[in-house]
Amino acid sequence: MDEIKPDAVRFYLWNNVHYPMNRKEIIRTVLYVLTAIASIVAWLYCDHLTDLLKKQEQKNISLWAESVHEIEKVDLDGEISPIVYSIIQDNSTIPAILESHIDGSFSYINIDIDTTKQTLDELLRREIEEMKNTHEPIVIDRYYTLYYKDSSIIRQLETYPIIQLIVTFMIIALTIVGIRISNKADQSIMMVGMSKETAHQLGTPITSLLAWVELLKMENYNPEVTCEVEKDVTRLVQITDRFSRIGNKPELTPENIGPVLAKSIEYLKSRTSSNISYTVKIPQKDLIVPMSVPLIEWVVENICKNAIDAMQGKGSIELRLYDAGKNVCVEISDTGKGIPKRNFKTVFKPGYTTKKHGWGLGLSLAQRIVNDYHKGNLIVKGSEIGKGTTFKITLPKK
């Protein structure tokens, strides 16, 4: 981008576009950092709680195993401590399987068993294999082995950070979308204000020019020159009217786009150097598109004038119109200096220009006219440094 020039337009763009965007970028960066820190802290704390709970469950299951061992040592007529019974009965969360090596039987607790597809024995053996991979089995004595795995609470705690991370990414994504919408709204307000101010400032000199044209007619000054001057002044009136209407919803009417494009190129031909050659490829058939003719003419002229500047007044411009099914496409190619690929989107941002004395609003307004008002699309289709650029306009037929 050019260095910011100390004129009123540059000053306006700098204060109304760049500073707010910088503040929002700072806020966005701070938000990302705080979100990342909060996520990491929550993850670590959750991991810490999970470790504590795992250790507590390991102690509980060890006590449970010791209680089972105590019961097995007691004779039929012996007494069992109420504490032992309490420890066994209090395990309502830890899934466990007790394997007896005496008769090969299994006892289980806190395990949901569905025997509709597999037998109980097969299900328990599958559970045992899973438990072996989770925790080392507890050998109570030579007669019993206890297998266990983490409770559902621990498993939920382990998945919680993942869920939190997904939610965090969603929040960040929504924040980015919100900031982009806000930036776009700021740019739209700025463009509308600049357009209306431009139209207002042009009003006085155009009125004077119209008066001078009438005076030339009265003086019978060279009719050919007077006619051409009148055409240009009329053109200025149309341009002023276009700028004054930016921000208002335009009235779209079905028009044959071919003659509209041809007329725009003919106007440019008569007012550009003979070193610029034009090639126009428009099909014979009618291509009807709902559009605002003055606005589309302005878009085409703006792209062509940018091309002339890029070619430094010498080269060729080709305009090609073709039917693309539900859409109509216009491609405008030049033999200018080209645009780096990294700037394909940047060229449409307000304030971007490579000219020494430019506002950087032309392509931004052109894209707004095509995308927002006509529900179409304006893009840089392709460009090669030193060889030229192709802009593509897509307009829906309905």
Explained architecture:
With 398 residues, the chain is an alpha+beta fold. It is built from eight helices and eleven strands. The chain has helices at 8-73, 82-90, 120-134, 152-218, 223-245, 257-269, 293-310, 362-373, and strands at 96-100, 106-109, 138-139, 144-148, 253-256, 276-281, 288-291, 315-324, 327-334, 377-384, 388-396. It has a five-stranded mixed sheet. A four-stranded antiparallel sheet has the order 2-1-4-3. The chain is rod-shaped and about 130 Å long. It starts with 7 loop residues before the first helix and ends with a strand.
Tags for this entry?
single chain; 398 residues; alpha+beta; 56% helix; 16% strand; rod-shaped; disordered N terminus
Task: Tell me the β content.
Answer: 15-25%
Uncertain segments: 1-21
Most strands sheet: 5 strands, mixed
Class by SSE composition: alpha+beta
- Give the terminus-to-terminus CA distance: 37 Å
Task: Draw up the topology in text.
Elements: H1 8-73, H2 82-90, E1 96-100, E2 106-109, H3 120-134, E3 138-139, E4 144-148, H4 152-218, H5 223-245, E5 253-256, H6 257-269, E6 276-281, E7 288-291, H7 293-310, E8 315-324, E9 327-334, H8 362-373, E10 377-384, E11 388-396
Parallel strand pairs: 6-8
Antiparallel strand pairs: 1-2, 1-4, 3-4, 5-7, 8-9, 9-11, 10-11
Helix pairs in contact: 1-2, 1-4, 4-5, 6-7, 7-8
